[in-house]
Design brief:
Helix content of chain A: over 70%
Largest sheet of chain B: none
Distance between the termini of chain B: 75 Å
Distance between the termini of chain A: 55 Å
Largest interface: A-B, 84 and 93 residues
CATH topology of the largest domain in chain B: MetI-like fold
Shape of chain B: flat
Strand content of chain A: under 5%
Helix content of chain B: over 70%
CATH class of chain A: Mainly Alpha
CATH architecture of the largest domain in chain B: Orthogonal Bundle
CATH architecture of chain A: Orthogonal Bundle
Number of helices of chain B: 13
Strand content of chain B: under 5%
Number of strands of chain A: 2
Number of domains of chain A: 1
Oligomer: heterodimer
Structural class of chain A: mainly alpha
CATH class of the largest domain in chain B: Mainly Alpha
Structural class of chain B: mainly alpha
Radius of gyration of chain B: 27 Å
Number of strands of chain B: 0
Amino acid sequence: MTLRKMAPYLYIAPCILLMGLFVYYPIVENFRFAFYEFSAFAPDKVFVGFENFLALFQDEVFYIALKNNIWYAVISIVCQVFGGLILAAILEDPLTRLLSGFFRTAFFLPVIISITVIALLFSFVYNPDIGILNSFLRLLGLEEWTRAWLGESETAIFAVIAVSQWQSIGYIMMLFIVAIQSIPQELYEAADIDGANKFYKFLHITVPQVKEMLFVATLITLTGAFTVFNEPYILTSGGPGNASEVLGTLLYKSAFFRDEMGYASAIATIILLLSLAAAIIQMKLFKTGKEE
Amino acid sequence: MEADKITSTDYSMQSIRVRSYKRKKIAGAIPLYTILIFYFLIIAYPLFWMVINSFKTTEEIFSNSWALPTTWLVSNYVHAWNTGISEYFLNSTIVTLSTCLLTVFLSALGAYGLTRFQFKGKKLLLILCMGGMMLSPQVSLVPLYKLIQALGIHDTYLALILPYVAYRIPITVLLIRAAFLEVPKELEESAFLDGCSTWSVFTKIFLPLNLPILFTGIIITAYFTWNEFMFALIFIDSDSLKTIPAGLMQFRDALQTNWGVLLAGLMISAIPIITLFLFLQKYFVRGLASGSLKG
């Protein structure tokens, strides 16, 4: 009898334990750590109150990183959410049915490939001498546009952001394809009878019908933009100087190069708050959209 | 006679209409295909470039990176394999297999507990799972690093496997839960009447009945684990324990100027998961449809 009562708890215990220990406990600890000063291997922590945050707000690299994260968010929304939706709509259009399977697989391929592989590959694409990008510009006779894309502070962050778009558009596209496939076909047929054109059908049927996925996709993209680490770390390590620093690389450097664990936790707290804020604002926006 | 005439004109009218409809259709398809082909080139060209240059010497990449290799140097792949990639490959395989099996097994247990019992605190796991999907590992990096040191598992396979499993459980539980909810009540009731325990209902009915969804769980976990970079970079110090994503950084530094071999290493790292995807696409898409697949 007692075993029977215990049974459900035994089944869910491993999940709860692992998530509690490795997902939830560290999040809570992180808030606490942000108020201390300590190093990776020393056992002692010194309570410093809001000092880490104050130092952070006076750190000019923090603002560079924040600005870059915002660029990341804006460009990712345009390319991944809008671009992904348009590609999905084209691939689900009856006119492209013949080859849509092929294109869908091809566009999704970068999602499957490890970001390390992609980032190292793009360090070749951007290579000033042999890179595809510069060669292509020379081919078009745009010699004066060629440059060391990752090596110049004006272009570095945008070159990094472009790699993320190249990899992730296919992912968001696939989410939209799944959503579009569940739209009832009768809606389009009815519009056809009324003689509606493609743009009309896209704006008045497809977009409203995939609204929920639009919300999910924006959320994924925004969270991704504020927590990004891999691409900038591998491609530029935040350089040249701090030109392509993002909050993620700043956090990593503070923790594991400068050994300022408390400071790093403060950055992590800011990242968490930013992605939460983005989520909440978005929920509000989408709700007002629904009421209209 | 009269009727015949009408039908024939009718026919020709119709064929004109069909033809013009077809022409209109083709005209409509052209801009769509233009966009698709344009984007296809953007995606495919760098990948194609990687493939052909992975068979060249560094000098040839420099002198002519656009052409096909004059001689196809398979030796680049051998060289890459022997310069560390084989070790990273083995580590990735061990970590990925362990993570997949543990994640899917524990999530199936959790999903079974969630769907087949009425008990206090049932909602808690559901909420923890949903919340867990939103939290990204970057945010808890420092405490996680401390925790892994405190547990004494830093620089071991477990330093990767345990956090991976923990971070993949939320999505996998939700995925499997949805499938378990569909299993008809009568099946387990008759099993209970035959004197089966909840455990044997789980192993003899729920697991075998839901193999496709368990498989989907394995696929999306494998995809995540094979490609994860940040934990792999931070929680493992020894070169001999590194998985492919972190190992490639080491590999690049070791090969500075030997580009052909570096590209061959990239190819070897990407091929297993691409192969898996090409053969098992529908499982990928199903896993993706039920939630976010990215870390």
